[in-house]
Design goal:
Elements lengths: L2 H13 L3 E6 L4 E5 L5 H15 L7 E4 L11 E7 L4 E8 L20 E5 L2 E2 L1 H9 L7 H26 L5 H20 L4 E8 L5 E9 L2 E5 L13 H16 L7 H4 L2 E4 L15 H22 L13 E7 L2 E7 L21 H7 L2 E8 L15 E7 L3 E6 L13 E2 L5 E6 L2 E4 L3 E6 L4 E5 L5 E2 L4
Parallel strand pairs: 10-11
Antiparallel strand pairs: 1-2, 1-5, 3-4, 3-6, 4-5, 6-7, 8-9, 9-10, 12-13, 12-16, 14-15, 15-21, 16-20, 17-22, 18-19, 18-21
Amino acid sequence: MSYQIELFHSLLNDFLQGESALMTIEGDVLAVRGVQAVSYGTLTMAATTATKYLKLQEGDIALLNDPYSGGSLLSDMTFVMAVSEDLIWVSRRSLDKSVKLAKSVEEEGLRIPPTPLRQKNQLNEMILSAMQAHPACPANFVTWLKHQCEDMTVKAKTLHEAIEYTGFTITGELIEEYIDLCRKSSVQKISERASGETRVDVVLDSGELLRLNMEIHDGKVSLDFSGTSAAKTVSLTESATYGVCFYTLSRYYGFEQLANSGSFSVLQITKPAGCWLIGKYPAPTYKGMTCGAAALQTAMELALSQIHQKSEKALSSNCPLNFDLLHQDKHMLLTLPGGVGASASHDGECAHLQSFSIEQLERDFPVKVQRVDLRHSTGGKGKHNGGRGVILKIEAREDIQAAWVTDLTLHRPRISKNCSHGDPCEVSIEHEGTHKVLPVLGQQKFSKGDVVTLCSGSGGGYGKEV
């Protein structure tokens, strides 16, 4: 790798933080970074859509959150900025998240198509006022947007300064060489492993079937989703589907830091018209972007494990448990991640609950936290145990509302004899001496004295217990 290429790669890594991407105005993807699987397809789609309908000049910023234009959750705002005459920067930043169980995307919140937010260094106050007037608009939205624009302007300036400091020019030849190098590296990493083909079926509790046919040959991966059913209540956009597939693939083979047009070329996907992986407006997308994406990731991991049996790994609990507490004008989303599956050489990693203040929770809501710990797993056992999920137990001290969504693949897919399934996510309630397991997703009022137990899923175990 030449010094210029190494310098360019380092510059991309330093600049792209969080969920972000950098592209050329012609549409070449230079790099995508993020921890959300759907970002690897939706960020580039957002840039493509915005630049198609809006003529962005240097310094201009467009805003969108519409899943059908390259957005993800409606609470995630995607900013598309022309950082130069040739480069487009996409940055996704989150507002206050909540559980959305709706029948259409319009009911899930304020949906924003590609919209000119700043032009010629001037914010579009008319559009900002229209957004603020929408009944579904979050509080202090305009103030937050202005702060994001200021932050992006500062960071864009640092990119220009970094390029000037290095003393080299980002030429078309450099970009072409970098993309080709990433393509060759990705092909090599895949070719070093086994080739083969397999089929995996995953059934969602909502009734959808996910059928994945995977073929790996000559450093290329082909995915055919023929046989996948139409949406019932879960729908994922086409760009999000691609993102999840590439995310899982690149991390499995170890080229996630080379996510661009070059490495994208190793993946080919066939999807039948009308299936739930290519949802159409106005289908709701919240469950797709959460539970649906997790189910697709599980199918990908299972297929890769079947083809590469020498590095077989038990399934992880990819879908976190999201529990949204509501009381008066306040809400708080509690997210409990799941455990990681074990392998032939070591136990799976236990889940780590995102830090939150128990004192603040009990101050803002009429609840008492009785327990926060790793759950006692009965599943996921083996020579190497799967990573345990998290348990959170709270008592309602007054009537309180809640909405939740958990893993929608409680109907476990078939796995190899070397592996065992971990425990699924579970929401249960103790009411007046009775214990009841609640549905995998729902919303209801809890009465004073009710004790609600939240358990995220555990990872699967590997090998026979000794």
